[in-house]
Specification:
The protein has about 190 residues and is an alpha+beta fold. It is built from two helices and 13 strands, in the order ββββββαββββββαβ. A four-stranded antiparallel sheet has the order 11-12-7-13, with helices on one face. A three-stranded antiparallel sheet has the order 1-6-5, with helices on one face. Strand 3 and strand 4 (about 30-35) form a beta hairpin. The longest helix is centred in the middle third of the chain and has 22 residues, at about 65-85.
């Protein structure tokens, strides 16, 4: 069954400017600029103003199936993440977990890469480069903690995943050998009140 018109709107904060051109949405705020392409979705994007003069983004689907209608909310969530990225930024914290051999990590390439040594006592040096716009730091207060920061939620999360995947235990019982680098916390750089 097709719905004739399904639409949703979302508010745009005052300190963020949003441009829509041919299903490419660009958000610019205090922390920088982010862009996202929605050309694969069969949706209409419009910038509108309501009666009180507040700016809003409207997403519509004409004659859409259930899946197309569901994509409206998904698209709005992605735009919400862009807005949060250019206003607050994203931060992910990771912890080292080891039973015997202490994992040794050094930040390289001007906070853009990490080298992991002594994982399970192996001599191999594991190198991970961060994705574009993501910086990595060692936490000052907490022992064995990494902090990844950036504006794009997907790039920050994917960088964390790359680090996690580099430290998989091979040829052992993973219920017993729990060593690795795991995500411990996800949030924004600017803390909410």
């Amino acid at each position: 069954m097709k719905t004739i018109l399904s639409s949703e709107t979302m508010d745009i904060p005052d300190d963020v400017s949003i441009k829509v051109k041919a299903k490419v949405i660009e958000a610019e705020g205090p922390r920088g600029k982010l862009c996202r392409d929605f050309k694969h979705l069969n949706l209409d994007f419009q910038l509108i103003k309501d009666e009180s003069g507040k700016r809003k983004l409207k997403v519509e689907a004409w004659f859409g199936s259930r899946k197309t209608s569901a994509a409206i909310r998904t698209a709005l969530s992605h735009v919400q993440n862009l807005i949060a990225g250019v206003t607050k930024g994203y931060r992910t914290k990771m912890r080292f977990v080891y039973a015997h051999f202490p994992i040794n990590a050094s930040i390289t390439n001007g906070n853009k890469g990490i080298e992991i040594r002594n994982f399970l006592g192996e001599k191999k040096v594991r190198k991970v480069d961060m994705l574009e716009g993501v910086s990595i730091l060692r936490s000052e207060k907490v022992k064995d903690e990494l902090v990844l920061e950036g504006n794009d939620i997907e790039l920050v999360s994917r960088s964390a995943a790359l680090i996690n995947q580099k430290c998989h235990v091979k040829n052992k019982d993973i219920r017993k050998f729990l060593d690795g680098i795991y995500v411990s916390e996800k949030g924004t750089i600017v803390e909410e009140d």
